[in-house]
Amino acid sequence: MAKYQKLLEPFKIGNVELRNRFVMLPMTIEKVDNYHITDDLVDFYEQRAEGGVGLIEIGSCYVCDCFGTEPKYHTTTGACGIWDDQFIPGFARVAEVAHKHGAKVAAQLELCYEWRPNGDVPLLSYAPSADVPSGPFVGMPEREYTKEEIAQVVKQYGEAARRAKEAGIDIIEIHAGIGYMVMRFLSKYSNHRTDEYGGSAENRARFLCEIIDEVHKTCGDDMPILVRISADDLMPDGNRIEDTLEIIPIVEAHGVDAWSVQAGFHEAPRPVANQIVPEGEFIDLAKQVKTVTSKPVFPGTRINTLDMCEKVVTPWAWPVSSSPIRPRPARWPRGIRSSCAPASYARAAWTTSSSASPASAR
Ligand SMILES: Cc1cc2nc3c(=O)[nH]c(=O)nc-3n(C[C@H](O)[C@H](O)[C@H](O)COP(=O)(O)O)c2cc1C
């Protein structure tokens, strides 16, 4: 088979067919106006869809009300709101431009380190356990979730998913990685609860499973669900790959259609997502996840050349991912199809990608 052609093979997430193996990882790029998707953001995604990616993941779609809370909790700044129906038209515009060019869209539902049940009470830093700092810049949690509050959060995820579906979004993504709220429940490092939400793998996964059940309830069983997870959280006494391999089947039994694999918490004692992370660093974690699931697995992070994409896809036949913040990497699929010299595309990408620097391009 000609070089790179395998990257153009379609695949499915649930019942949604994607035209190739290029997945644009989620990014919060702050092109929002008070949590509303702007013309600029729609244009950004349209360029990527037109460039040929199979799936666009809209980063950080916040499920709880953040209005009027900046700057105290800047992790929410720049996120797209999805906690109210007023946000539906913005998502509908992204879905429309992506579909026009043949791409599919996932909305990544998110809570970082803070939460409130509604806009009438202050946004506070929350965590599964009050004895562990609730993330970089936040300090010790102001609140530990009660079971009643967990039930409210689960409802918020379900409602957010319902809005995404109404907007024409194809896939619901749950961010359960990088030390954000869902991951904090999954991880042995940050979850010291003694109730049914802490302790065993099954208990630590309960919050995520309940979210998935709720999404199925509001969107129907055929709405595909993608979960992003840190397969090794790189935190002291935290989840290692063995823990993740135990968690994956527990969660998948609730109906998951694909896994996106990353590593670390943001505050992990080593870099997890920037230029000094070696090329393809966490691919082996994804490979191990693949041993316990038949669903598509995306190895993310530092897959920044077509040659690396092909290495991932050819032996294991998985989707590949890359977060092309600038147009050129997003045009790889079109470049391959139109027989542009793919190698020079890849080389050009080294100088323009968000995370690849020429120095790291060997
Ligand atoms: C500007 C920027 C914003 C990001 N926002 C998100 C986000 O909202 N959700 C998420 O899961 N990952 C986010 N990420 C992480 C990327 O999805 C990806 O994991 C990371 O950039 C590593 O992939 P790369 O080596 O291809 O850049 C962001 C990355 C960047 C550069």
Task: Please tell me about this protein's structure.
- With 362 residues, this protein is an alpha/beta fold.
- The protein has one domain: Aldolase class I (TIM Barrel, Alpha-Beta Barrel), CATH 3.20.20.
- Helix content is 34%, strand content 18%.
- The strands form 4 sheets. Strands 3, 6, 7, 8, 12, 13, 14, 15 and 16 form a 9-stranded parallel sheet that branches. A 3-stranded mixed sheet has the order 9-10-11.
- A hairpin with a 2-residue loop joins β4 (32-33) and β5.
- α3 (147-166) runs parallel beside α6.
- The radius of gyration is 19 Å and the shape is globular.
- It starts with 10 loop residues before the first strand and ends in a 10-residue tail after the last helix.
- It binds flavin mononucleotide.
- Flavin mononucleotide binds at residues 25-29, 59-60, 108, 175, 228, 262, 273, 300-304, 322-323, 354-355.
Number of domains: 1
Overall body shape: globular
CATH-defined architecture: Alpha-Beta Barrel
Rg over alpha carbons: 19 Å
Question: Key terms for this structure?
Answer:
single chain; 362 residues; alpha/beta; TIM Barrel; 3-stranded mixed sheet; 16 strands; disordered C terminus; binds flavin mononucleotide
Secondary structure layout plus pairing:
Elements: E1 11-13, E2 16-18, E3 22-27, E4 32-33, E5 36-37, H1 39-51, E6 55-62, E7 80-81, H2 88-100, E8 104-110, E9 114-115, E10 124-127, E11 143-144, H3 147-166, E12 171-176, H4 181-186, H5 201-204, H6 206-219, E13 225-230, H7 241-252, E14 258-262, H8 283-290, E15 297-299, H9 306-316, E16 320-322, H10 327-330, H11 332-337, H12 342-352
Parallel strand pairs: 3-6, 3-16, 6-7, 6-8, 8-12, 10-11, 12-13, 13-14, 14-15
Antiparallel strand pairs: 1-2, 4-5, 9-10
Flavin mononucleotide is lined by residues 25-29, 59-60, 108, 175, 228, 262, 273, 300-304, 322-323, 354-355.
